[in-house]
Description:
Layout: E1 2-3, H1 5-18, H2 23-38, H3 49-57, E2 68-71, E3 76-80, H4 86-104, E4 106-114, H5 120-128, E5 132-138, E6 159-163, E7 171-175, H6 182-191, E8 200-201, H7 211-216, E9 218-219, H8 225-240, E10 263-271, H9 279-291, H10 306-315, E11 320-321, H11 324-335
Parallel strand pairs: 3-4
Antiparallel strand pairs: 1-11, 2-3, 4-10, 5-6, 5-10, 6-7, 8-9
Amino acid sequence: MSVNHTKIKSIIKKIFIKRGLKTNHAIICANAIINAELVGAPSHGLSRLKMYCERISKKVINPRPKITVKNISKSISIIDADNSIGFVAADEAIKKTIQNAKKTGIGLVAVKNSGHYGLSGYYVEQAVKKNLITFAFTNAPPAIAPFGGKKSVFGTNPICFGTQTSSKVPFILDTSMSMINRGKIRIAEKLGKKIPYGVALNKFGKPTTNAKEALAGVQLPIAGFRGSGLAWMVDILTGVFVGSNHGGKVKDPFDDFSGPQNIGHLFLAFKDNLFVKDYKKEIKENIKRIKKIPNLKGQTIFYPGEQKFLRTKTNSKKSIKIPKNIKKDLNILLVN
């Protein structure tokens, strides 16, 4: 089944409004979910809609949060999301980050008591459009073990970096600390498909291609010890530092309804012309030099964000393909 993305966005909006969200909050959520579909990341799109709705119905996501913003200085703010759905908390945070950075040259915003917010790149790109170099960090439920261990403690804990370029295509590096993101494993488990070898271990510490075993076991980090260390770094930055859950305490949104997730986010943005007069000229030269190097046979050098831009441009002209199981979920959520 394929449906126009504008129509699907309207359906998602209705579903969230039915569950008590304000209209403007429902629109924020719908935009973020459709963005994931358009950029080619369905693991963070419609496949998660049922989960968000279940968490609202079980009162572990607050549909009407009283989000508070405390300004520590003109550059630094902390947001208490009041167990809001993550999309709404992150939307508030990136806007505040942009505001702070535009005023002083640099903006740092922390978020506590939030939930899963989808794709980090979605928020970073908003700041990049304002000529800000931007970082985003967020923690997640246990999926990765510390190097040498076989029990999950750290989330896939994505790191995202973005900057403008000389073209309309921004440089956006958005990567989890795991070999593949957890959403892809969940989709494979739901569809009964295998996952690639070398991305996860079962609960006994043995390599597995079985998605269900992987979810019960451990995901492998990128670059071994380095990836594990980076996941730990994000756990500190978005948990210990901002006052959110950390050290394996973030609740799994699909399986644990015993309470809110209390996820933390951290956004950092600064003006790109702080140290050089013509940043756009310099970044153009940087990309030009790197793209001029000899390519491997049959390969093209892309900077992070280019292929995503091309996918989005193509997908925006097409309808979104909706698997049967997700179509069934949508129909149930619209009625109930």
